[in-house]
Write a structure and sequence with these properties.
It contains 14 helices and 72 strands. By secondary structure, it is mostly beta strands. It has eight domains: about 1-140, Immunoglobulin-like, CATH 2.60.40; about 150-275, Immunoglobulin-like, CATH 2.60.40.60; about 285-405, Immunoglobulin-like, CATH 2.60.40.60; about 415-530, Immunoglobulin-like; about 540-645, Immunoglobulin-like (Sandwich); about 650-745 and about 755-795, Immunoglobulin-like (Sandwich); about 805-945, Sandwich (Immunoglobulin-like), CATH 2.60.40.60; about 990-1135, no CATH class. A hairpin with a 6-residue loop joins β22 (about 335-340) and β23. It is a single-pass membrane protein. Pfam families: Cadherin, Cadherin_2.
């Protein structure tokens, strides 16, 4: 409610001299509605005196949301619960801590204080004054409402390398959001307790526990230092005073407890110390060297040796041993052997060959894996733990000696190559047999001694064409066979007869070789001899003459196909370059200009200019030539028939056709002939014709009066074989109206004076000869369709068939007024008519056909007919006995109607109807039109600025005369009225000297027929009269309007409302029996409620009420008198 009052009052802004501050202290977490204090008690006594008129308004400060201020009592209470750690920005919350080792430092000011402003308003009668402003400070005091915790989490994993003498590790920070020292952590509450396992199981008791605790206490120590932070007042460090041995114990678990004064506010940090293994033991081989004998065909799938080694370290990394070949090993050793790194197994990469190397020496190395981190610094792990690492590199070596034992495991290897060293063996066809050595056969065997001795021969089929001969030193074995003194053998290969390549392109042969080992190993080798070609054949075509049909190059698909005609193909029985054929055109003018051929594909193409209309058939000759030496050639004749493509549009013999036709000619009249041709053939030369209006896209402003579908023309076409063209005849198919082709440029204006300011030239003098602009489109039946359009202009000559049409004055301006004081030559109006015919047929002249005067003072509606159909009333021209034509003059050329002389006074008030005739001057027949113009002659001042002085004087004199007549008439009427009053008064006094005693005649009250009720002034007079004559009357009279709907039964709705006249009691709604007067159909229901017989009565007679009557009522009588006095006095009511 107070808010509404403040919104409606005007606030008076004045200077605020002082701003008071009010301070409160409250504990945090108080419930809603808790009262903090009353502001008025903190104010000066001068302000407290006007407490009922004071109002307290808090401003929209951010921290007011926590409080509620009563505007009247100034009571300040808590609106919502306040958490000190949430609302104060200088406190550290758990959400603000990240996984780092540092915490945000708090500000030096540890007070949590909320402030807001309050306006003190004083209520006046019409405004509100701001008398002062208060700043309220509410300090939120801390309570022990938060439990301590370790940040960033309550578990910490520490990684320590073994054999480190002393180590310090920073522990997670204990944090308590309560900043009050009494509510925060206490130093004496920190306890470091050992645990046996990570599952928090209790330690075993007695000797084991005692020994473990002694070792643990000597090893681990908690160091506590204070910090300036109020929420994290201590830094904690774990000191490791003695070296740890991974091989003795890998993990140490412990808990660090922290808390304050309340037991339920304690927290714990679980600490797990992980001892990391250090590489402090060297891996060792059990043997320093071994000697192995290995067959050369040993498998590569099984290890040839597996060494044994051990390492004294127990860690998962440093107890791991890796085996490898020494980095000093030769590349041949590494290419032959490889070592499995996990167990040292030695494998062969490929089988050994005694012939290549008979002994190998390997050096094996065993070591621990290289550490991932080699720097001696503390590093952070992703799990939040801390790890200390350092590098180590300890290893051991051993030697492995391997002897390779030879076995007969190699078969003879046969290599065949030509004399020049190529692996391709060739023989030229038809070569002389005496020089037929063409290849060398080399046979090798990697085995030693007899295992490497080889003997070779040809198979039976190959001996028919070739001969194999050993070359080099020879020796005979015990069987008499030739053998070489070294391992392997060398042979030459010769042909025993000549070859024909066209019958045999290649010849195969086979060589068989075997060694002399036990068991013997055999090798078979096959080879192919390629017979080289000699150019002894010419190219050949499949036919000596070819026929092809191709569409002319104007077809778009020809370009898409790159103008392909055909592809010729010739064959040559030779091979290589001897069979490689190139194609060329036999030179002539036609082939050179129209065709080209691809040399090596034989594709014949046109150059894009094949035109059937120029050459329908062509003959070209294509030659095929091989690349042999000497060249061989042949040719083929190609007949090319060019097919038609619809690339020729129809052509008209003339660029434009002009014809002439007279309007209104009969339908079917031949206007002219158009000739069209098409150079294509077949369906491409069959034409269809379409006729349309060439002005169909003309602007709408031209307003042409015909549309395309109403063109009065049609066409007929027929083919003329002699000329191979079409003759298209143009005929009329409907009425030809020249005037319908004229643009509708009649001007319009709403200004009536425009008729005197606008000049219209003759239409025929500004419009070119009307014409039909047609377009004849010729379209062939080919694909794609080809069209052409020619313009046909048909001029239409004129016939006098149009009547003149009146444009001015417009229909609404054909009735005007004219002052009789206008001067001679005064321009009354201008008529203008147009004739859309041409020349003399369109030249219009104007005439006054008739001129009559009419008296229209009693028939104003008759004047409207003058604009259209003319006046029907009889003229009064004959009664005037004047010649009206002598007053008006109409220019036959310009149509200007003017006064030829001044108008007489007798024409004032009369209306003159002028029938203006517009007629052309056609040679054969003349057409005409009539227009009615009405001019009303008035006695008004002249409109024209050049009115004559005589006219102005006459008008002024008449005005003065009329003024005198009006004054004289007023004086005369006033005198007659006064005389009539005296006569009536004397008459009344003479004939009714005693009526004032017996009949108190009351003043006449007039009934307003138009409104159906009494005039107010008359009703007042009626009551006044009643009061002055009450002693002479039998009852109180009352006259008032009677609703018309209550008299519907008497059918008096057309006679205005009726009256009820109650002379006895105005409130009597139930008159005595027999008190109603008889009323018939069409009578006014005037009812008189009569008193009983012993009272003063009335003598009443009915009366008849006629339409359009004047009705008068008095308290003593009632009568109805007709205006025309045709109805006698028929009734009255008067007091007896």
């Amino acid at each position: 409610m107070h808010g509404c009052v403040f919104a409606l009052l005007l606030i008076d802004l004045r200077c605020i001299h002082t701003i008071h501050s009010v301070h409160y202290k409250i504990p945090e977490e108080q419930s809603e509605g808790t009262v903090i204090g009353i502001l008025i008690t903190k104010l000066p006594s001068t302000l407290r005196e006007s407490l009922p008129n004071l109002r307290f308004r808090s401003l929209h400060d951010e921290e007011i949301i926590f409080f509620f201020l009563n505007a009247t009592t100034s009571e300040l209470s808590i609106r919502q619960r306040i958490d000190r750690e949430t609302v104060c920005p200088n406190l550290l919350t758990v959400d603000n801590v990240v996984s780092s080792n540092t915490l945000r430092r708090v500000e030096d000011n540890d007070r949590c204080e909320l402030s807001f402003r309050v306006n003190i308003l004083r209520l006046n009668n019409i405004s509100v004054d701001i008398v002062n402003m208060i700043r309220v400070y509410v300090e939120v005091e801390d309570i022990d409402d938060n439990k301590c915790t370790f940040l960033p989490k309550e578990r910490q994993d520490i990684y320590i390398k073994e054999n480190v003498n002393f180590t310090k590790v920073t522990l997670n920070k204990p944090v308590d959001l309560d900043t009050n020292r009494s509510n925060n952590l206490i130093r004496t509450k920190f306890r470091l307790v050992p645990m046996e396992t990570t599952t928090d199981a209790p330690l075993p008791t007695m000797p084991v526990r005692k020994k473990y605790l002694e070792t643990w206490n000597n090893t681990f120590q908690l160091n506590i230092t204070e910090t300036p932070s109020q929420v994290a007042p201590f830094n904690l460090e774990l000191w490791i005073n003695r070296p740890l041995d991974y091989e003795i114990r890998q993990e140490y678990a412990m808990r660090l407890f922290a808390g304050g004064r309340k037991p339920n506010r304690t927290c714990a940090l679980f600490i797990m110390v992980h001892v990391e293994d250090e590489n402090d033991h060297k891996p060792m081989f059990e043997k320093k060297s071994v000697h192995l004998k290995l067959m050369e065909n040993a498998s590569t799938l099984h290890p040839i040796y597996v060494p044994k080694a051990h390492d004294g370290d127990a860690g998962p990394v440093h107890k791991t041993m890796l085996f490898e070949l020494s980095s000093l090993s030769a590349n041949s050793i590494r290419a032959t052997f490889y070592v499995v790194s996990t167990n040292g197994s030695i494998y062969l990469r490929h089988p050994l060959r005694h012939s290549q190397q008979s002994q190998y020496k390997l050096t094996l190395v065993v070591r621990n894996p290289e550490p991932l981190i080699t720097s001696k610094s503390t590093n952070l792990y992703f799990d939040g733990g801390t790890r200390l690492t350092e590098a180590a590199d300890l290893f051991d070596t051993m030697d492995v000696l391997i002897d390779v034992i030879d076995v007969n495991d190699n078969s003879p290897i046969i290599e065949i190559y030509s004399i020049n060293g190529s692996t391709l063996l060739t023989l030229t066809e038809h070569l002389d047999v005496s020089v037929t050595d063409f290849a060398v056969v080399s046979v090798t065997d990697d085995d030693s001694q007899n295992n490497g001795q080889v003997t070779c021969m040809l198979d039976d089929k190959s001996m028919q064409s070739f001969r194999l001969t050993r070359i080099g030193p020879k020796r005979a074995d015990e069987n008499g066979n030739d053998q070489t003194g070294l391992n392997g053998a060398l042979y030459k290969l010769s042909a025993v007869h000549a070859f024909d390549r066209e019958s045999t392109t290649t010849v195969d042969f086979a060589i068989i070789c075997h060694d002399h080992g036990q068991p013997s190993r055999r090798t078979n080798s096959t080879a192919t001899v390629v017979i080289l070609d000699v150019n002894d054949h010419a190219p050949q075509f499949s036919s000596n003459r070819l026929h092809v049909q191709v569409i002319e190059d104007s077809d778009p698909s020809r370009k898409v196909n790159d103008y392909f005609v055909l592809q010729v193909n010739a064959t040559d029985l030779d091979s290589g370059n001897n069979s490689r054929i190139r194609y060329l055109l036999k030179p002539d003018n036609i082939s050179k200009d129209l065709f080209l051929i691809e040399s090596y594909t034989g594709i014949l193409r046109s150059k894009g200019n094949l035109d059937r209309e120029q050459n329908s058939t062509l003959h070209i000759e294509v030659m095929a030539v091989d690349n042999g030496q000497p060249e061989q050639s042949n040719s083929v004749l190609i007949d090319v028939q060019i097919l038609d493509y619809n690339d020729e549009a129809p052509e008209f013999l003339q660029a434009i056709y002009e014809f002439q036709v007279q309007e209104n000619v009969v339908q079917g009249y031949h206007v002219g002939t158009v000739v069209a041709c098409d150079r294509d053939s077949g369906e491409n030369a069959v034409l269809n014709f379409h006729l349309k209006d060439a002005t169909s896209d003309i602007s709408e402003s031209a307003e042409y009066r015909f549309e395309n579908h109403l063109l009065p023309f049609r066409i007929m076409s027929h083919y003329v074989p002699e000329s191979q063209c079409y003759a298209v005849r143009l005929f009329t198919s409907g009425p030809i109206d020249r005037e319908s082709l004229l643009p509708n440029n009649y001007m319009k204006s709403d200004n009536p004076n425009w008729i005197l300011q606008t000049h219209f030239p003759q239409i025929s003098s500004t419009i070119a000869t009307p014409k039909y602009e047609l377009e004849l489109m010729a379209e062939d039946k080919g694909l794609p369709r080809q069209t052409n359009v020619v313009k046909i202009v048909t001029y239409v000559t004129d016939v006098n068939d149009e009547k003149p049409k009146f444009l001015l004055p417009r229909v609404e301006h054909r009735s005007t007024v004219l002052s009789r004081y206008e001067p001679r030559r005064f321009e009354i109006l201008k008529v203008f008519a147009v004739d859309e015919d041409e020349g003399q047929n369109g030249t219009v002249q104007y005439y006054l056909e008739s001129l009559d005067a009419y008296d229209l003072t009693t028939n104003a509606d008759e004047l409207r007919r003058c604009k259209t159909e003319g006046l029907r009333q009889r003229p009064v021209t004959k009664q005037l006995r004047i010649n009206l034509r002598e007053y008006f003059e109409l220019n036959s050329t310009t149509g200007l109607l003017s006064l030829s002389t001044e108008l007489p006074d007798r024409l004032v008030g009369l209306t003159l109807q002028l029938n203006v005739l517009a007629k052309d001057i056609g040679m054969v027949v003349s057409l005409e039109s009539v227009m009615h113009v009405c001019i009303t002659i008035t006695d008004s001042p002249p409109q024209h600025a050049n009115g004559t002085m005589v006219g102005r004087l006459r008008y002024a004199s008449q005005q003065r005369t009329m003024f005198y007549v009006y004054i004289f008439t007023a004086i005369l009427v006033f005198g007659l009225l006064i005389a009539a009053v005296f006569v009536l008064f004397g008459y009344f006094c003479w004939h009714h000297p005693k009526s004032r005693k017996n009949r108190q005649v009351i003043k006449i009250i007039r009934y307003n027929e138009a409104e159906g009720n009494l005039i107010t002034s008359e009703a007042d007079r009626m009551h006044t009269t009643h009061k002055t004559n009450v002693d002479n009357m039998a009852a109180i009279p009352l006259a008032y309007s009677w609703p018309m709907e209550e008299t519907a039964g008497t059918q008096t709705a057309n006679f205005h409302s009726t009256f009820r006249y109650n002379s006895t009691n105005p409130q009597d709604s139930h008159p005595a029996d027999g008190s109603r007067l008889p009323v018939g159909h069409g009578h006014t229901d005037i009812q008189s409620l009569l008193p009983t017989a012993d009272r003063v009565g009335y003598l009443c007679s009915p009366f008849e009420h006629m339409p359009n009557q004047s009705m008068y009522y008095t308290l003593a009588n009632a009568h109805a008198v007709n205006y025309s006095s045709e109805t006698p006095y028929v009734g009255y009511c008067e007091a007896t």
